[in-house]
Amino acid sequence: MNADHFIDAESIYESEFKQIISFLIDCYEHMLTAHKNNKIENNENKIRNRLFKDYLTSNKIRNSAKLFPCRFECESAEIDDNYDEVGYTDIKILTQASLNISDAYFIIECKRIDGKTTLNRKYISDGIMRFIDVKKYPAYYYLNGMLGFIVDEIDVNKNIGKINALLRGQFTDASTIDYLKPLKDHVYISTHLTKNKKKLKLYHIMFDLSEIV
């Protein structure tokens, strides 16, 4: 079988995910404009739900962004082989591939960030680590995302350094291969080794909401 087939497929999946990230950034900019004089709750679920309900599922915004056919779901349960709920994905993204392969979807986990150690730790322990443990958050493409809701005015790049320091020190079980590094505005990327020994790529999208919370 031609190995190029797998390379092409991988590039298509990543291209789709990058389009999703661009769409998320569009939604973030709409949110900033809409709430310039009308602040929102400083609550992780409320921020996520607002993003989902008012923007990700808005046909007007989707059409203006010319987003390819896909569906966003919020707070979807992940169920293990014992029929137990092992986790709830913040945002699940189904694409056309999901119609034929039920496991073929992307996941984005949302976490608040304020530049302090407690939330930085949670970003890793309750975020990144859920992808490392594939039983909690499966990774069909071994390509998923983290969405950081920045709720205080901070130096984002400096805080990325703090997260990397935690990964090097307290969270070596995240099996980080490449630490978070900037890709473009709002976006960073890291790679890790999952518990089933697969290379996982994570995109980290940082949204500065400090002016509207």
Structure description:
There is one protein chain. This protein has 213 residues and is α/β, with parallel strands linked by helices. It has one domain (3-208). The chain is 38% helix and 30% strand. It is built from five helices and seven strands; from the N terminus they run H-H-H-E-E-E-H-E-H-E-E-E. The chain has helices at 3-34, 44-56, 59-65, 117-132, 156-169; strands at residues 70-79, 85-95, 105-113, 143-150, 176-184, 187-193, 199-208. Strands 1-2-3-4-7-6-5 form a seven-stranded mixed beta sheet, sandwiched between helices. Helix 4 (117-132) packs across helix 5 (156-169). The protein is globular.
Largest beta sheet: strand ordering: 1-2-3-4-7-6-5
- Low-confidence stretches are 1-8
Straight-line distance between termini: 53 Å
Helical/strand content category = alpha/beta
Number of strands: 7
Order of helices and strands: HHHEEEHEHEEE
Mean pLDDT value: 91
Helix content: 25-40%
* Large-scale geometry: globular
Summed up, what is this model?
The chain has helices at residues 3-34, 44-56, 59-65, 117-132, 156-169; strands at residues 70-79, 85-95, 105-113, 143-150, 176-184, 187-193, 199-208. It has 213 residues and is of the alpha/beta class. It has one domain (3-208).
